[in-house]
Amino acid sequence: MNVQFETWKLRSLYLTFFAGLGSLIPYLPVLLTHRHFSPLSIGLLLSINPIVGILLPPLWGAVADRTGRAVPLLRLQLLVLPILVIILYHSSTVVAIAGILTGLAVFLTSFPPLADHLTLDYAQRYGIDYGRVRVFGSIGFSLANLSVTAFLLHGSIDFLWLLYSPFVATGFLVSLTIREVVQEDSPLPNSDQGASRNDPSVNRAASLRPLLPFYLIVLGLALTIPAYNTFFPLYMSRLEGGAKLLPLAYVLSSGSEVFTMPFATKLYNRLGPRYMLILSAVSYALRWVVVAVSPWTVMIVAIQILHGVSFGFFYTSCVMYIRNTLPRRLFATGQGIFGATTALGNVLGNILGGMLYEAGSPREFYLTAAMICLIAAVFAWRRRKLQTISSAV
């Protein structure tokens, strides 16, 4: 097998899926506003994706673990998604759009954990670098924003599906050429008493329990992600010239991942998960403090370049830590729980953040987000067991 060729297939899979994602998710509020939905209706409709994301990824992961096959599930998702998006753009009622968004959420929220599961199988079996593959998702997302900007100069938001569907349909064609990886059974580096990865006597809950502190750290950081995804555009609109600089902030944030993710794997191998999570949490805290206290809009925009460290290192270290900690039969399940935990953090962050944002000043809201990140950093610092797992990927 040509490993380099197979690696480019995986890169293409991330590129096409996230290019589609970048041409869909950021513009759903615009589409719904264009369809004359009320702010309340838009808020309820856009809450469907994270709520489904809490429930479905662990189930998809459990299916992948039990069957040992992630590729057919990825193919199913990439086949169904373009069809649902086309139907979405041709729907007009709240009930119809709610139904389609629910169907989209079932597949959108589960693709990244399964794709990461497959890529890490390749990384473990053939020694490829996970970060240098995953970065193509960031490239795709960035390219999508440029494509949408050019598209909307000449076309209507009602026809944006013409961008999304070809992206993801191409991903489906690529997936038809990707094969599963047959892993050789071997003991985990941290397995108790030499337990095998496939030992059926090991209780599923007992295997997942050691990751509870890790998932609590993930939840804490995920609580503050809406500070950027949801409330940052609102905050920028209040600042002088902020609305005009918002696209630049998005370019800096998504583009910065392109420069950090290719090195995230090697840095993880050197620093370990504990220090990577601490670095990510402190980076998030610094971003929110600058947003809260800086009198200069340009500085608030410029600090978003830390997104490559805060999110890029956070995501990479999480998926690798899960892979290096769990037995093989729970790899996809662990990834699914990670996706569900971040989705739960987004839901709670939107609710609690909205309450704080309205009750106090936006700056107090961002300082609160920074404090949550610092608490997560301290918690990670005290969890020395996070550092005992060395990467094998």
In brief, what are we looking at here?
The chain is mainly α and 393 residues long. It contains 19 helices and no strands.
Descriptive overview:
There is one protein chain. The chain is mainly alpha-helical. It folds into 2 domains: 186 residues, Up-down Bundle (Growth Hormone, Chain: A), CATH 1.20.1250.20; 188 residues, Up-down Bundle (Growth Hormone, Chain: A), CATH 1.20.1250.20. α5 packs antiparallel against α9, α7 crosses α18 and α11 packs parallel to α18. It is globular. The two termini are 19 Å apart.
Q: Could you give the order of the helices and strands?
A: HHHHHHHHHHHHHHHHHHH
The CATH topology of the largest domain is Growth Hormone, Chain: A
What's the CATH architecture name of the largest domain? Up-down Bundle
Q: How many alpha or pi helices?
A: 19
Protein structure class? mainly alpha
Name the shape in a single word.
Answer: globular
Please count the beta strands (DSSP E, at least 2 residues each): 0
Mean pLDDT equals: 82
Strand content: under 5%
| Major sheet description | none
| The top level CATH class name of the largest domain | Mainly Alpha
Q: Which value, in Å, is the CA radius of gyration?
A: 20 Å
Write the layout of secondary structure elements.
Elements: H1 3-22, H2 28-34, H3 39-46, H4 48-67, H5 71-89, H6 94-108, H7 111-126, H8 130-154, H9 161-175, H10 204-208, H11 212-223, H12 226-229, H13 232-238, H14 242-271, H15 273-293, H16 297-302, H17 307-325, H18 331-359, H19 362-382
